[in-house]
Design goal:
The complex is a heterodimer of chains A (110) and B (119). Chain A is mostly beta strands and 110 residues long. Chain A contains no helices and nine strands. In chain A, the strands form two sheets. In chain A, strands 1, 3, 4, 7, 8 and 9 form a six-stranded mixed β-sheet that branches. In chain A, β3 and β4 form a beta hairpin. The termini of chain A are far apart. In chain B, strands 2, 4, 5, 6, 9, 10 and 11 form a seven-stranded mixed β-sheet that branches. Classes of the chains: A mainly beta (110), B mainly beta (119). Chains A and B meet through β3, β7 and β8 of A and β5 and β10 of B.
């Protein structure tokens, strides 16, 4: 199975909004509403930020939101803050009952 | 709250078998799906496998021929075995629990353990 495609990096200034895309196929992202997003700071374990495309776990800031259109899911961070600088990964369930991660996106806060 | 802790050798020789255990504390392993995920140094995350507490499993097709995941409910642990390792298997290995209904997202995660494949 191929990794989902994400941009290598996205940059924004504090207070701005940025969007990270995650492109797959009809056998994963497009076929199921089981896309989740993870934030990973250096040397730390990933932390879930969004599950089932657009749901936020308890404790995650409402500045994080998710959506999906066709085979592409998106994570939007609004009101960008310095603490949001991290690596972000999407993940999707697939048609063969496996899971696949995205290639990862480094968010830079300018 | 539930906590996960990976354990096992930090150094494995090429062609040998990598064995890791994830110990679950603060909750029962029963009723949930569990997973292994790895991350080579400086690279992205790769899903390896999942197991249900009853023993139902599935594997990443690219690793399926070399991987075995198992569960021991009496010890509240699940394990990973990866045979015929090469330098490409050097990575931080994470264990994680699936959450949700259906269970499709990973939370919580263990802290991760670095396994280096080298002679």
């Amino acid at each position: 199975q191929s990794a989902l495609t994400q941009p290598a990096s996205v940059s924004g200034s504090p207070g701005q909004s940025i969007t990270i895309s995650c492109t797959g196929t009809s056998s994963d992202v497009g076929g199921y509403n089981y896309v989740s997003w993870y934030q990973q700071h250096p040397g730390k374990a990933p932390k879930v930020m969004i599950y089932e495309v657009s749901n936020r776990p308890s404790g995650v800031s409402n500045r994080f939101s998710g959506s999906k259109s066709g085979n592409t899911a998106s994570l939007t961070i609004s009101g960008l803050q310095a603490e949001d600088e991290a690596e972000y990964y999407c993940n999707s369930y697939t048609s063969i009952r496996t899971y696949v991660f995205g290639t990862g996106t480094k968010v830079n806060v300018l | 709250q539930v906590q996960l802790q990976e354990s096992g050798p930090g150094l494995v020789k090429p062609s040998e078998t990598l064995s890791l255990t994830c110990t679950v504390s603060g909750g029962s392993i029963s009723g949930y799906y569990w997973s292994w995920i790895r991350q080579p140094p400086g690279k992205g995350l790769e899903w390896i496998a999942f197991i249900y507490y009853t023993g139902n499993t599935n594997y990443n097709p690219s690793l399926k021929s070399r991987v075995t995941i198992s569960v021991d409910t009496s010890k509240n642990q699940f394990s990973l075995r990866l045979n015929s390792v090469t330098a490409a298997d050097t990575a931080v290995y994470y264990c994680a629990r699936y959450s949700g209904s259906p269970s499709t997202w990973f939370d919580p995660w263990g802290q991760g353990t670095l396994v280096t494949v080298s002679s």
